[in-house]
């Protein structure tokens, strides 16, 4: 999972699978990318929660399969 944002604050993502938190990821919004490797062992939906500090800001995330 990769998170990047632009603006004057910080963006946060929390990823949950099966009701359990898998990872929390934060990025300072200066164009720097933050990357986290996560393992999702159960099939089913992922829940991704987004929040920020000192909005407004733009953010994007990418979740890819391993390999």
Describe this structure in words.
This protein has 67 residues and is mainly β. The protein has no helices and five strands. Strands 1, 2, 3, 4 and 5 form a five-stranded antiparallel sheet that branches. The two termini are 13 Å apart. The mean pLDDT is 81.
How do the SSEs run, as a string of H and E?
Answer: EEEEE
Enumerate the spans where pLDDT stays under 50 for 5 or more consecutive residues.
none
The profile of the biggest β sheet is:
5 strands, antiparallel
- Overall pLDDT: 81
Topology:
Blueprint: E1 2-17, E2 20-30, E3 34-35, E4 46-53, E5 57-62
Antiparallel strand pairs: 1-2, 1-3, 1-4, 1-5
Question: How would you sum up this structure in a few lines?
Answer:
By secondary structure, the chain is mostly beta strands. It contains no helices and five strands.
List keywords for this structure.
five-stranded antiparallel sheet; 67 residues; mainly beta; elongated; 0% helix
């Amino acid at each position: 999972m990769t998170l990047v944002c632009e603006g004057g604050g910080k963006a946060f993502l929390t990823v949950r699978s099966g009701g359990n938190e898998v990872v929390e990821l934060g990025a300072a919004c200066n164009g720097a990318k933050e990357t986290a490797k996560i393992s999702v062992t159960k099939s089913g939906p992922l829940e991704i929660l987004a929040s920020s500090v000192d909005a407004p800001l733009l953010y994007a995330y990418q979740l890819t399969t391993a390999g």
